[in-house]
Amino acid sequence: MSETKQKPQITCMEPKQAWAFMNEHPEAMLLDVRATVEFSHVGHPVGAVHIAWKEAPDWTVNPAFVEEVARYVPDRARPVLLLCRSGQRSLAAAQALAEAGYRTPINVEEGFEGPLDDNKHRGALGGWRFHGLPWEQS
């Protein structure tokens, strides 16, 4: 009988749930995994640590991502919330952390800017900023 390896489970939360979780769990770390230009110019949650999952211009996965996270979060039992533009890159990054042994990776659904609306614009339907959660620009 062969064993099939199951993917580790990722918890997903909407931005307001993530904010409440962080207030209830001050040990939790919020990682913004967007590219540097997005983090700096579009804005980011107050207190978020920036470690890009993919970086411009080639948009390949950062091969040192888990190692970089481990510098900030050596305790793999510590909750780590991950946020990107819309919740897709952060989901992949959360999966990588789960596979590396992090026990509580949490993907922030909707991300910082939320999903596209009918006009292909972000920010009108959801996201960290849309919900009025604390953010800043560099």
Strand count, sense and closure of the main sheet?
5 strands, parallel
CATH architectural arrangement: 3-Layer(aba) Sandwich
| CATH H level, superfamily name | Rhodanese-like domain
The level 1 CATH classification is Alpha Beta
> Would you give the CATH topology?
Oxidized Rhodanese, domain 1
Q: Give the class from helix and strand content and strand pairing.
A: alpha/beta
Question: Count of helical segments?
Answer: 4
- Tell me the strand order in the biggest sheet: 1-8-7-2-4
Mean pLDDT: 93
* Spans of at least 5 consecutive residues with low confidence: none
> What is the 3D form?
globular
Determine the strand fraction and express it as a percent band: 15-25%
Number of domains: 1
Whole-angstrom Rg = 15 Å
Q: Separation of termini?
A: 55 Å
Report what the structure shows.
- The protein is globular.
- It is of the alpha/beta class.
- The termini are far apart.
- It is built from four helices and nine strands; from the N terminus they run E-H-E-H-E-E-E-E-H-E-H-E-E.
- It has a single domain, classed as 3-Layer(aba) Sandwich (Oxidized Rhodanese, domain 1), CATH 3.40.250.10.
